[in-house]
Structure formats: C-alpha cells, structure tokens
Amino acid sequence: MAVLTYREALNRAMTEEMEKDPNIFLMGEEVGHYEGAYKVSQGMLAKFGERRVIDTPISENGFAGVGIGAAMVGLRPIIEFMTWNFSLVAIDQIINSAAKMNYMSAGQFPIPIVFRGAGGAGGRLAAQHSQSFESWYAHIPGLKVLAPYTPSDAYGLLKTSIRDNNPTIFIESEVLYGSKGEVPEGEFLIPMGKSDIKREGTQLTIISWSRALMYVLPAAEKLAKEGISVEVLDLRSIRPLDEEGILASVRKTNKALIVEEGWNVAGFGAQVAYLIQKEAFDYLDSPIERITQEDVPMPYAANLEKSSLPSEEKIIKKVREMIK
Amino acid sequence: MSQPKTKKETEDLLELYRQMLLIRRFEEASAKAYSMGKIGGFCHLYIGQEAVGVGAISALEQKDYIVSTYRDHGHALARGLEPKALMAELFGKKTGIVSGNGGSMHFFDKSKNFMGGHGIVGGHISLAAGIAYASKYRGDGAVTLCFFGEGAANIGSFHEGMNLAAIWKLPLVMICENNHYAMGTPEYRALSVKDVSVRAVAYDIARDHIEGDEVRKVREHVRVAVERARRGEGPTLMEISTYRFRGHSMSDPAKYRTKEELEKYKQGDPLIKAEKDLLAAGWAQEELTKMDEIILKTVEESVDFAEKSEEPPLGWLYKHVYAENV
Ligand SMILES: Cc1ncc(C[n+]2csc(CCOP(=O)(O)OP(=O)(O)O)c2C)c(N)n1
After folding, report:
1. Could you say which of A184, B25, B72, B148 would form a disulfide bridge with B152 (CB–CB 3.0 to 4.6 Å)?
2. How far is the C-alpha of B279 from the C-alpha of B109, rounded, in Å?
3. From the CA of B119, how far away is ligand 1's center (Å)?
4. Sign of the CA dihedral A234, A238, A239, A243?
C-alpha cells in the first residue's frame, strides 16, 4: 500500500479519470501554470496541456457558469474553487443553475460537474477565509456533498464524484492537504452515502466528518485509556447521508455526539440529531449532544480561534458528561 | 431594409412573418388563459419583440445553440419547439415540454439545442459561454446565441461571461434585446451607457447595434456575428433595440410609461412592417388572412391539448432531482 498525502490522492484521482475520459477538464484560478493554490493539480498542466487544465481569471460566478454550460452539452468539468469561501460569489450558479437544471428540464440536461476546493476553518485566516459550508450546500436538493477526511477516502470519493452524473460539492480540508495516509494500490471507488467507522466502540457514537475528526480521533484514543469506549463514525458523504450506518451505530452504543466544524444554528448536525431521535429514540440513553464552532465569525487571535472551534478537550469533557 | 424584390425573397419574408404571427397569437392565447387562471406563476410576454427572436434564430443552423431568459416563449417558438408542448407546459401538464417542471420561464428542448429559459437575470450568460466553450473544446463548429435584456447588462455575470468569452474567443453571439425597461426601470436610470453594445469595447470584442423592427434586417446582422463566431474570431455583443407592448409580466399594468410612448412604438410593430412589405411585394391580403386563420387554429389546438392533458402524476415529484448514473 502506498502512503500518499491527501493532496496527492486527489491529484491521482483526477489524473486517472482525465486519462480515461477526454470529456473531463479541470478549470479554476491558478490550477494550471501555478499548479493549484494548494498544489492539488501539480503536474497536470504538463500532462494534459492548456486545453484541459485551464486557468481562469478571478470570476467565480463566470467560470462556475461556464462549467455548468459545458456540462449541459456533455462535458464533465471539474471546477476548482481556490477555497469554498469564494464559492459564495458563484452560489447563484451552483444552486440556481447546477442543482436544478436536470429537474427544470425534466431530465434533459443532467449536470455532471464536480465543484471542489479547500474548505473548513483554521490557520488563523479570520472571518472571511475560515468557514465550513457543508450545511449550506447540503440544504439543496440536486446537489451531492462530500467531505473526506483520509487520503484514501479523498481518492475514492473524488473518482466517484467525477463519474457521477450530478453536480457534486467536494469539500476538501485545507489543513489536511499535507496529511498522509495509506491508499491501496490500484483503482478503487468509494460509493457516496456510505459512512465509515474510523474507530470501533461500544459506549457512545461520535458522528463527525472532515477536519473535525482531527480532534475526535485523538479524543477517542484518550478516552479509551480512561476506559471509555467511543465509536467514531466518519460520514464522508453528507448528502446522500448514510442513515442506516448512523442508526446502526447509535442502536449499538445508545448515545450520540455530533462534532462538526461548522456553526450550530441550522447546521448539518441538527439534521443528523433529528434523524436519530426519530428513528432510534427508544435506543437513546441520553440526549443527543452537539459540539460545533461557536456562533461567531472566525476570530483572528490564535487563542480565540482555538476556543471557537471543536477541540479534543471539549470532546473529552462532553463525552465524560454523557457517559456518567 | 428594402422591400423583398424576388419571389424567393418574398417567400422568405412570408415564412418569417408566419413565425412572428405564431408567436403573437400564441402569446395572446396565453394571456387569455392566464387571466382565466389556467396558467400560474409569472408569464412574461414577448409581444412586440418578435422580429428579434425570429430574425436572430433564423440566422442559425440546427447544430447551433440558443440560450434564453425567463421571456422565452418567442425564442422557443422561433426555434420550432412544438406549440402544443409549450402551451401544455404553461398549463403545468404532463405533456408539457418539461413535463410541468418548468412553466413559462423554463422551456428546454434538447432535441432542438434549445438550452433553456433561465429565471435569474443574467445568470444564463455564463452558461451560454460554457456551451460555446464546449463547442470550442470539441471543435464541433456550433455557435451559441444568448439573448438577454438590457437590465441584465448590469449584472456581474454579464461582465464575467463577456470577459471569459473574449479571452477564450468563444463562438458566442450575445444579443441584448433592449426593450428599454427592466420591469419598471427605464434604461436611463440603470444603464451607464445609451447603447449596451459599446460595452464590447471594454472587452475588445466585436459589436453591433440595430433597430429590431425588421425581421430580415435582424437576421442579416446576426448572420454576420454568427459567421464571425464560426470562423473562430470570437464573440460579438449586439444590441437590438425593440419594445414590449405588454407589461413586464402579466401582473404588470405598465403604468411607468405613457400611452403616447406605447402608441409611438406600436407604429413600428414588426408584424405590421412585415405585412406591409408583403402586400407591397404583391402578396394578397386574403393569403395573409388565411395564414392567420391557420395559425389561430394551431394555437387553439394547443390550448385545447393543454386543457385536456393530464397533470403530472404525483409520483413524479421526486423524478429528475438527480440524474441516474448509468
Ligand atoms: C438576479 C435577479 N434579480 C432580479 C430579478 C427580478 N427580475 C426579473 S426580470 C427583471 C427585469 C429584467 O429586465 P431586462 O433584463 O431588461 O429584460 P426584459 O424583462 O426587459 O426582457 C427583474 C428585475 C431576477 N429574476 N433575477
């Protein structure tokens, strides 16, 4: 098994898919000559040329629309947002055009497009550059939303997204690009809508995804040393959602904590909590809990930033309370 | 433009006139159906602007693409979309062009490369650039024609779409149908320029400006832009000046303009112009009346068809939210 970084895994997925299908192209700011703001597209311009690895001006709304138009006539664009923060100026195209075209045209115009790029909080980037948008896009029927944590998941899910005939919101974590993990040799796909148990446990389920797992997994490890057995479920796929996987785990452990990097109000965790109380109410031994980012724009000061995000300490404290 | 001289020219004008008349009658019928509560939502009529859509679309080949706005009935009919399916769509029926999912603002027909009516002002301009982009990517030789109003020329998407089309020399023809009002806002209160096409200068692309009251003149000018695009010489921004005789939508009594103004523009009704030219070229009035009768019948049949069609089954609610992965 090869050890790859998250970034390399994404690169490998795109490269392999582009080698197979000439309809796929990569477009975005700095994806070509600069090889990606986060170097995800390293080497791709040299390999595929300017026709298929296309640098755009700073015009997210414009090139998101170009991608969608191209997808209407059968191309399969991968549109990179330098970060998801800038997708907001393209959100009209994503929601009003991409997500709805197939429906509005009664199935005449599916939009096989992947919007991908760096998301999430952290790095002292302050309010406008440090935020999670999974919940926003998950709200929209017609979109699929993915947020992988490991390099292997990133690889398998990106390939699935590229082959999917629907618009996919593929949110990478900018603090994970350099993280390493084993990626099996040879090609494999990971289906959407399948969560993954990243750690088995018996007393409580933590449901999380993407970078928040960076806090969850070490917390679970420490809790195990105290004799508390936590199961960690990585959703990977926000929409479609692995309802069965969530319910099976909670029915086993009888307690659920949801940890997400996004905000609390109308956050995706609320949807997961609703699902659990509706379908597994009788199995619950305590109220469902959530840990989210604090309800503030991201502060710049290092201590404030840290205190606004989920953390190992917060998770450990909460789990101890819930286990009592 | 001069009157048609040869028989061929006259027959050609007759066909364009027929298309314009079909739009006019179709929309009169939809206005009626709307007032009777048969059509829901918004309903933006194209009456008065027919020469633009018909003239421009007649300059295209079948392989070319058309991207339209929420005011899409005229463009759809000019492209030859089935009046029955369009009327049924307005009525929200299963037999509609998008089986009742779209209504007035969202006509789509893949088989005719009719790439949709789009409801967000200007949002479709970058989609059009994307379709043109795909043509360039594949080298299929197709041109994309994008219609929009002068109101859309102030939105970011217009500028981004133009810049991208310009730097990549996309086979795109952008037609601003300037009917002088964006809803109730007259152009002089919203546009920094008198003629939208001058904005082409800022993007270093070709431009053109004409009056849109003569259908053959429109086609002639659009053809130049289409050929330029097909030769790989990039996009053109055109302004075609026109006027809508009705309100912005069916719910708009259009009190922001005077009766005199409306009357003045009605003198330039593109249908009357074409009719006059046909009569002057020796066409008999009875022939034209007969044509009108046939069109009225077609339209009546489409209303009847829409009326009698079933509503989409409730089981279709979730159909097409996602495309199948095959
Ligand atoms: C982004 C956006 N803002 C506002 C509206 C509401 N709206 C619909 S049509 C319209 C006027 C547009 O005028 P114009 O582009 O000149 O086209 P016309 O209606 O004259 O054909 C407005 C304001 C909208 N649909 N989309």
Report:
1. B148
2. 35
3. 8
4. positive
Of B109, B138, B322, nearest to A142 by CB-CB distance is B322
The first and second tokens of residue A222, run together, are 């420490």
Three-class DSSP category at A286: coil
Distances (CA, A) of B121 to A228, B154, B196: 56, 10, 16
> What tens digit of pLDDT does each residue of B165-184 get?
999 999 999 999 999 999 99
Nearest-CA neighbor of A73 among B237, B162, B144, B231?
B144
Distance from C-alpha of B65 to C-alpha of B43, rounded to nearest angstrom: 24
For residue B280, the tally of other CB atoms under 10 A from its CB is: 11
Place of tokens 């305590």: A286
Nearest to B101 by CA among A108, A138, A67, A112: A108
DSSP state of B2: P
* Residue-level pLDDT at A301: 87
**ipTM, two decimals:** 0.88
Where are the alpha helices (H) located in chain B, listed in sequence order?
7-35, 50-57, 73-78, 83-90, 123-138, 156-167, 187-190, 199-203, 215-230, 259-267, 270-280, 285-308
Strand ranges across the sheet with B206-211: B114-117, B65-68, B144-149, B172-178, B236-241, B206-211
Whether B322 and A70 lie within 8 Å, measured CB to CB: no
**Using one digit for the tens of pLDDT, what is the confidence trace for A154-212?**
999 999 999 999 999 999 999 999 999 999 999 999 999 999 999 999 999 999 999 99
Angle at A303 between CA A316 and CA A123, to 5 degrees: 90
Residues 6+ apart with CB under 8 A from B84: B95, B301, B302, B305, B306
Burial class for A70, CB neighbours closer than 10 Å (0-12, 13-18, 19+)? buried
Contact B128, B144 (CB under 8 A): yes
Phi, psi at residue B219, to the nearest 5°?
-60, -45
With an 8 Å Cβ cutoff, are B129 and A59 in contact? no
pLDDT of residue B179: 97
Among B66, B113, B137, B155, most A C-beta atoms within 10 A, so best to mutate, is B137
Q: Model's pTM, two decimal places?
A: 0.93
Residue position matching structure tokens 């009777």: B36
Nearest Cα residue in chain A from B124:
A65
Pick from B98, B127, B323: which is nearest to A68 by CB?
B127
CB contact under 8 A, A109 and B99: no
Q: Which stretches does DSSP call E strand in A188-302?
A: 196-199, 204-208, 230-234, 237-239, 256-263, 289-293
Q: Quick check: helix, strand or coil at residue B208? A: strand
Report whether pLDDT(A94) > 80: yes
DSSP per-residue letters across B249-305: STT---TTS-HHHHHHHHHT-HHHHHHHHHHHTT--HHHHHHHHHHHHHHHHHHHHH
The H or E element containing residue A277 is helix A268-280
Tell me how far apart the alpha carbons of residues A243 and B10 are, in angstroms, rounded to a whole number: 67
Closest ligand 1 atom to residue B248 Cα is 19
Contact A196, A175 (CB under 8 A): no
Q: Whose CA is nearest to atom 2 of ligand 1?
A: B121
